[in-house]
Write a structure and sequence with these properties.
The complex is a heterodimer.
Chain A (H helix, E strand, L loop, with lengths): L22 H17 L14 E6 L5 H12 L3 E6 L7 H13 L5 E6 L4 H11 L6 E7 L5 H15 L6 E5 L6 H13 L3 E5 L15 E3 L2 H5 L4 E4 L15 H8 L3 H4 L7 E3 L12 H4 L6 H20 L3
Parallel strand pairs in A: 1-2, 1-3, 3-4, 5-6, 5-8, 6-7, 8-9
Chain B lengths: L12 H12 L7 E6 L2 H13 L6 E3 L8 H4 L18 E9 L3 H11 L6 E9 L11 E5 L8 E7 L8 E7 L4
Parallel strand pairs in B: 1-2, 1-3, 3-4, 4-5
Antiparallel strand pairs in B: 6-7
The chains are: A alpha/beta, B alpha/beta.
C-alpha cells in the first residue's frame, strides 16, 4: 500500500506518523528545523513563509501545550490560525468529523492540525481529502489515541541529535507507561529508522503492549538494570486519565518502583540526558531533583518543538 | 548574443577582490558591519573582513525564509541559520554577495535584516554584476560589470579552494540545471 503521507513525487503530503517515514525525510525535517530555532532569538520572531495560509487547529481532545506550540509555530510563519476545541459526543464520531472537515475546507483551509482521542482519525481526514480531490490541504497529526504523536517524536529526535550528534552509537531507555503512550510509539519508530543502537523500554508488564519486543526494543521490568549505561532517558507521563481498571497499585507505589530519582539516574552514563514530553507528574514518574537537575533537557525540548513544527508545516505548505 | 562569456574570458576573482577592497576602503570604518549572503557571499565577506581589517564581527545571512519563490518551489533544502553578531538597530551594514543578478536575493536579505532591527544604512558590495535585474536594486561597490548580460540559461558562481590555498576564490560558469 502507498504510504498516505508521501505524495507521488516522494514529498511529504501529510505528517501522520513516524512509522514508515523514510530516513531522508526525517533527516530533512531535523535539518530544516535548525535555522527555524534561530528565529526565536530575533527581535522579530516572524517569517513570511505561510502568509495568507489558514491553519485550523482541530482539537477533539484537550491539550494546552501541544496546541499552544502549534499555534506559536504557525504564527511565527505568518499563517492565520483558527483554534477549534471540539467536544465530541462518542456517537457518530466518524461522520461528524468528516462533516467538520468539509465545512472548514469550504472556508479555504490550507492545513489541519488534528488531535483526536481515536487512533486513525487524522488518517481518515487525509483519506477523505484525497478521495475528494483536495490535495492542496495538508494534515498534521497532533496526537491520535494511543497511535502516534509524530511531531513530538521528531522534536525528541531533534533534541537527541542536538546533545548527542550521532544516533547510531546510542543506547536509549524509554521509561513508563508505554501501553497508553502514542509518544513512545512515535519515538520508537523514529529511533529505529535513524539507527539508534539499542532501544530499551522499562515498565511493569501491565504498562507494556503485548509483544512490544516485536518493535525491536529490549524490555526491562527492573529500572535499575534498564538504566545502566544509557545515553538518553526518555520519561513518559503516567497517563492517569487513560487508566482503566487497576493496572497499578498507587502512584506512590509506582514512584517507588519506577520513579526516576538521582540515585537511579546515576546508573546511566555520566553525560546522560533526561527527556520528558510533559506535563510532568513530579513525585510520580520523576523526582523533582532530576526534573530540575543538570541532566534534564525538558525545557529545551519545548523550545525545539516550536522549531520542528515550523519546519514540518513549512515543508508541507511549500509548493511543488 | 554577440560576445558569449566563456570560462576562458571570465575575470580572475582574486583580482576582482583586490579591486573591491580598494573601492570600499575609503568608505568603511569602525562602525561598518559586513554581512555575507550564503554561500559565496559569506566566503567573499570573510576575505573582505580580513583585508579591510574591520572591527565589527562578521555576519552571515541565509535568505531561504524570505525567498519569493517559496509558494512555487517550497522550502529551500539546506537552509542555514543566519548569524548576526551585532545590534542591527542603528548599524552601518554592507551586504556582501558574489554575483548580482535579478536582485531578488538582495531584497530577501534586506527583509531578513529587518527582522533583527532597523539599520541606519545598508549598502551592497558584489564581485560581479551579471545583469538581468528584475527589481530596482543596485550595488554601491561592484568590482566588475559584464558588458553583456548573461543569458538565463547560464549560472555564474563563486568557488572556493580547489587550488593550493583553501581560501582562494574563483569564478565558474555553469549551465543552470532547471533552465
Amino acid at each position: 500500500m502507498r504510504n498516505p503521507q508521501i505524495n507521488r513525487h516522494g514529498k511529504l503530503q501529510h505528517l501522520l506518523t513516524t512509522e514508515g517515514l523514510p530516513r531522508e525525510i526525517i533527516t530533512t525535517i531535523l535539518d530544516a528545523a535548525a535555522p527555524f530555532a534561530e528565529v526565536a532569538e530575533r527581535e522579530v520572531k516572524k517569517l513570511p513563509l505561510m502568509r495568507g495560509k489558514s491553519i485550523f487547529n482541530l482539537f477533539f481532545e484537550n491539550s494546552t501545550r501541544t496546541r499552544t506550540t502549534f499555534e506559536i509555530a504557525a504564527k511565527r510563519l505568518s499563517a492565520d490560525v483558527i483554534n477549534l476545541n471540539i467536544n465530541t459526543s462518542s456517537a457518530a464520531k466518524g461522520e461528524t468529523l468528516l462533516d467538520t472537515v468539509d465545512n472548514l475546507s469550504a472556508m479555504q483551509a490550507d492545513m489541519f492540525v488534528v488531535r483526536h482521542a481515536s487512533s486513525g482519525a487524522p488518517y481518515l481526514i487525509a483519506e477523505h481529502l484525497a478521495a475528494t480531490g483536495r490535495d492542496h490541504i495538508h494534515v498534521v497529526n497532533a496526537g491520535d489515541g494511543r497511535h502516534a504523536h509524530p511531531t513530538q517524536g521528531l522534536l525528541d529526535m531533534y533534541t537527541i541529535r542536538h546533545y548527542k550528534r550521532d544516533f547510531t552509537s546510542l543506547t536509549v531507555a524509554i521509561v513508563g507507561d508505554v501501553l497508553h503512550s502514542r509518544v513512545a510509539r512515535s519515538q520508537i519508530h523514529a529511533m529505529t529508522t535513524l539507527g539508534v543502537a539499542e532501544i530499551r523500554v522499562i515498565a511493569p508488564q501491565t504498562l507494556l503492549p503485548t509483544n512490544v519486543e516485536r518493535m525491536g526494543v529490549r524490555v526491562f521490568h527492573n529500572i535499575d538494570e534498564g538504566l545502566r549505561g544509557v545515553d538518553v532517558v526518555m520519561m513518559l507521563r503516567l497517563q492517569n486519565e487513560r487508566m482503566q481498571g487497576a493496572l497499578l497499585p498507587s502512584p506512590q507505589e509506582y514512584f517507588k518502583s519506577y520513579g526516576l530519582t538521582p540515585e537511579r539516574l546515576a546508573l546511566a552514563k555520566p553525560d546522560a540526558i533526561v527527556m520528558h514530553p510533559g506535563p510532568m507528574n513530579r513525585g510520580v514518574e520523576i523526582d523533582s531533583a532530576v526534573a530540575d537537575g543538570t541532566h534534564a533537557v525538558i525545557l529545551p525540548q519545548v523550545t525545539f518543538g516550536i522549531a520542528v513544527r515550523m519546519a514540518v508545516m513549512s515543508m508541507l505548505a511549500g509548493g511543488a | 548574443m554577440s560576445k558569449a562569456h566563456t570560462l576562458a574570458n571570465l575575470p580572475d576573482a582574486e583580482t576582482l577582490l583586490a579591486t573591491l577592497v580598494k573601492a570600499m576602503r575609503p568608505h568603511v570604518g569602525p562602525a561598518t558591519a559586513l554581512v555575507g549572503i550564503h554561500t559565496g557571499g559569506v566566503w567573499l565577506a570573510e576575505r573582505l573582513h580580513t583585508a579591510l581589517g574591520l572591527a565589527m564581527p562578521l555576519g552571515s545571512i541565509d535568505v531561504s525564509f524570505h525567498r519569493d519563490d517559496y509558494s512555487s518551489k517550497g522550502l529551500h533544502p539546506g537552509a542555514k541559520a543566519s548569524v548576526i553578531p551585532f545590534d542591527v538597530a542603528g548599524a552601518q551594514i554592507v551586504l556582501v554577495d558574489d554575483v548580482l543578478y535579478t536582485g531578488r536575493t538582495i531584497r530577501a536579505a534586506m527583509n531578513e535584516l529587518y527582522d533583527y532591527g532597523r539599520p541606519d544604512r545598508i549598502d551592497l558590495a558584489v564581485l560581479v554584476d551579471r545583469g538581468g535585474r528584475e527589481l530596482p536594486i543596485g550595488a554601491r561597490y561592484c568590482a566588475y560589470t559584464l558588458a553583456e548580460p548573461l543569458p538565463d540559461t547560464q549560472e555564474l558562481v563563486l568557488a572556493r579552494g580547489g587550488g593550493q590555498a583553501q581560501s582562494l576564490l574563483s569564478l565558474m560558469l555553469k549551465e543552470r540545471p532547471d533552465a
